[in-house]
Write a structure and sequence with these properties.
By secondary structure, the chain is α+β, with helices and mostly antiparallel strands. Helix content is 45%, strand content 13%. Bound molecules: flavin mononucleotide.
Length: 216
């Protein structure tokens, strides 16, 4: 009888102890490993917009930019030539210099953007045979094509990480070449402003699907 009471008492204490242990583990695991919000691919596509009003109070780190460029590198390229190159203005001084050469409209719209990325590609590689002859009539158009694919990866990953972008084709290539010391072997494509949106823009309308699509 005495043994039973003693055993029963210990069992209750043991149960209490296990419950406390489970609760503690649950609380600790919540605190130490916050789960990132699950963002579906469709959410990324639907929420990505060209942003023309940035929140100047937020910055983006070099480590985060490395993640974006590493994602851009995952894009397919002609014969895996990987000719896209990226030049990143992280400092205020370089960012200001870029904003001076993207035209008044783009300058105004990127005022609060903390980061600017210039995307280029090495010419005469993508779309070219080993002997340097263009593989077909598109020529260096394939380098531009690959660069666009890389940039698409970049801007979608940026959105998935909670950032926003504006691709700008309106820019002075010669001025960018001298700001970043970009070699002549590279064709300068877009400037990408990177930051956080200050306002949620409307979705610009898309053409009817059947205007751009033909089945045979
Ligand atoms: C190659 C390219 C160049 C662009 N250049 C500019 C630009 O110089 N300035 C600008 O405000 N938007 C520019 N845009 C953004 C487009 O205007 C925008 O993608 C389009 O209106 C659709 O809007 P959305 O990106 O919000 O879907 C450019 C986009 C691309 C792909």
């Amino acid at each position: 009888m005495i043994i039973f009471v003693f055993w029963n008492h210990n069992l209750i204490e043991m149960k209490k102890f296990i419950l406390i242990l489970i609760a503690a583990v649950a609380v600790l695991s919540c605190k130490s490993a916050p789960q990132p919000a699950v963002v579906s691919f469709d959410d990324v596509i639907a929420s990505r917009r060209s942003i023309r009003s940035f929140d100047a109070s937020k910055t983006i780190s070099e480590a985060e930019i490395r993640t974006l460029i590493a994602t851009a590198q995952e894009a397919p390229s002609w014969a895996n030539t990987q000719t896209s190159r990226y030049y990143v203005a992280l400092s205020k001084e370089k960012a200001d210099a870029v904003r001076e050469v993207i035209g008044e409209w783009n300058k105004k719209n990127t005022e609060g953007a903390p980061v600017f990325i210039v995307s280029t590609y090495v010419k005469d590689k993508s779309g070219f045979r080993n002997d340097g002859i263009p593989a077909n009539e598109v020529g260096n158009g394939w380098g531009a094509y690959d660069n666009g694919l890389s940039d698409a990866h970049l801007i979608l990953k940026a959105r998935a990480m909670g950032f926003d972008t504006l691709i700008m084709g309106g820019r002075d290539a010669d001025a960018l070449r001298s700001i970043f010391n970009i070699p002549e072997e590279e064709a300068i494509m877009a400037v990408l402003a990177l930051g956080y949106r200050a306002v949620d823009p409307d979705r610009p309308a898309r053409k009817p699907l059947d205007e751009i699509l033909k089945f045979f």
